[in-house]
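To whoever is on call:

I kicked off a structure prediction for a single chain this morning and the downstream step that reads the tokens threw a length-mismatch warning. I double-checked the sequence; it's 119 residues and nothing unusual in it as far as I can see. Pasting both halves so you can look.
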Amino acid sequence: MITSRGTGRWITPKGWPKAGKTLHDMALREAFEEAGIRGSVNPDPVGQFDYMKYDLPAEAIPSFTVNVYAVEFERMAKNWPERGQRISEWVSPEEAAARVDEPELKKLLLNLPDFIYSK
């Protein structure tokens, strides 16, 4: 789990679609940029949830649907772009669900298959 830079709420790393990149590749990129995670990503999302972005201008549409991808952790980078800008912690799915605000993300975290987080 990481905190957002704007509000300090607990969130999962997430990013924006980019032309020429798959959504799962962007998820892996964001996991590195926001949390320093290096690994491989499953191209199939494990779920999705609706997300309100609170730090956009008032005229922007602040609601988005976020696909969640499982990243198989290989290593933690020593440095990454947003190091020091966020708090990050490894927690159980139950603890992660208790920290997030979005009801759909809570449900997704509580229903992750065992193979995703047990090694």
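Update from on-call: the warning came from a stale cache, not from the record. Cleared it. Sanity check on the structure: The beta strands are 2-3, 10-11, 37-41, 47-52, 63-68, 71-76.
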